[in-house]
Write a structure and sequence with these properties.
By secondary structure, this protein is mostly helical. 85% of the residues lie in helices and 0% in strands. It is built from 7 helices and no strands.
Length: 154
């Protein structure tokens, strides 16, 4: 019973902190979603690699063995920049277009896709490559080769 009480208190405490500090909430949420997304991507990549190499084991040993935890940490850390950027971007959009009618929603979506999405992609590529120790020339080459594809798929 004491454990349930402590968990309940912890949940209420976190809820109060997140409600009162949207920047922190948005940043941690972004980090969490990026980390979960990377974990799922790696799981799928590993399972597909096993399937294509006819290594059809029923256990998850190969997933754990081949999982790149450092990659997940790097991807999660991107949220330290994209979380605050997204927070302030959406605060700006909500102030500029406070109405919730069709016209305002369409404008917000267009501005988001045409202005914010490229910035998010630039931040993501730059931070990941920097954490991987790549130089500016390599980062620029990635932009030239992959940016349009990333932008269109996102």
């Amino acid at each position: 019973m004491a454990l349930v009480s402590k968990l309940n208190y912890s949940f209420r405490y976190c809820k109060r902190i997140f409600k009162n500090n949207l920047l922190l909430s948005n940043t941690l949420s972004t980090m969490g979603l990026l980390g979960i997304g990377d974990a799922l991507s790696q799981y799928i990549e590993i399972r597909l690699t096993n399937k294509s190499s006819h290594n059809l084991t029923k256990d998850n040993h190969s997933v754990v063995q081949n999982y790149d935890f450092i990659r997940t940490i790097k991807v999660t850390s991107v949220g330290l920049l994209t979380g605050p950027f997204g927070h302030y971007w959406y605060v700006f959009l909500d102030k500029k277009y406070p109405l919730r009618n069709r016209k305002s929603i369409i404008r917000k979506m267009l501005y988001d896709q045409l202005l914010a999405a490229p910035v998010f992609n630039v931040l993501f590529i730059t931070v990941i490559h920097t954490l991987d120790g790549k130089h500016l020339k390599e980062i620029y080459r990635t932009f030239r080769e992959k940016f349009l594809t990333i932008y269109l798929v996102r």
